C-alpha cells in the first residue's frame, strides 16, 4: 500500500479534516482556551465597553493580552485554523455568537473585579467552560436524530 497525503486522497474522496461535529469541536476548543487562560503567566485583559462599537468595528477589535491573544499564541489553535486575534477571528474559530463573545470578552460582564486588580484568568476560564457546556441547537438535533 502506497502512503498518500490528504491532498492526494481529496481528489478521489471527500475528506473531512475534523471528524467531530461542529458543536463538539466548539466545546473542545473552548475547554482548551480555558486551560490556556488558567496556565497563562500574565493576567488577561478584556475589551472595554465592547458593546458601544458598531458591529463592523466590534468584529475588528483586538488587544494584546486578551483571551483571543492568548489563544492565537497557541500553536495547536493556529494549526487548526485560528487566523488572528481579532473578535471576528475568535467568533468564527470558536463558533460564538456576538452575544457570547461579548459575555466572554468584555469587561462589563465581570463587574468591579477588574478595577480591584484581581486576576481575571480564572473567571474568564470559568465562563469559557460554561459556554463549552452549553448545548447548541445542532447538538440537540444530533441527539434527537440518534435517538429516533
Automatic annotation (TrEMBL):
Protein name: Uncharacterized protein
Source organism of the structure: Methylocystis parvus
